[in-house]
Amino acid sequence: MTTHQPRPAEEAARAAQVARIIDELAHDYDDRFDRASVEAVYRDSLDRLTQTARVQGFLPVLAGRFAAQRLDARARTEGKRPHRAPTVLFVCVENAGRSQMAAALLRHYAGPAIHIHTGGSAPAGSVHPEVVHAMKEVGLSLEEEFPKPLTDDVVAAADVVVLLGCGDACPVLPGRRYEDWPVADPAHATPEQVAAIRADLDTRVRDLVAGLLPDLPLPAPVTAP
User: Fold this and answer.
1) 138 near 121, Cβ under 8 Å?
2) How many other C-beta atoms are found inside a 10 Å radius of the C-beta of residue 195?
3) What is the value of pTM for the model shown?
4) Is 70 exposed, middle or buried (0-12, 13-18, 19+ CB in 10 A)?
5) Which of 1, 62, 165, 207 is the most exposed place for a label (fewest CB within 10 A)?
6) Which CATH number does the domain housing residue 27 bear?
7) Quick one: pLDDT at residue 171?
């Protein structure tokens, strides 16, 4: 099987896109980081995603989103952004199943009241289709999500780190609360098994929100008991 070699015009277009994204990030974060720091985070994010992503065409844009998440995390850690909401990091092996499901549920229940990050110790090329379908069944979209490698900056910014079968891959830092959720892996599971995993995560996420923000009203569970 032959691999596609980018043509000079394609390489030039990609380089222009990368430069434009770096310009936008440098503008957005110019009150917190210098341009060289922003560019370094972006290029590192692009390199990391290039190693694992299944579809390469959208990588510059995805790397921009990944870099923005990392820059936000650094800004909170370094006191350059007000820490008004707790930050939760969900970690699993591939960042393609459990962690993405948990993050979607937490976004649904907490909205902007909790900052959310996800990461994987060995990220997959894309979110598992059975997981995307299961979340769509309850009205939660994972269409724009993508697996991301676990980085030290997002770990350092987290108040709560939830481990979902990633073993010892996540660094343990002082001052953070760690939770180990023994939730089954939805990869290649049957629809019934994925639905049961979704229900398990739904209960755990609701309990997490209630513990972090006891005064926040919670809507009804998305998964019926």
Assistant:
1) no
2) 16
3) 0.87
4) buried
5) 1
6) 1.10.8.1060
7) 65
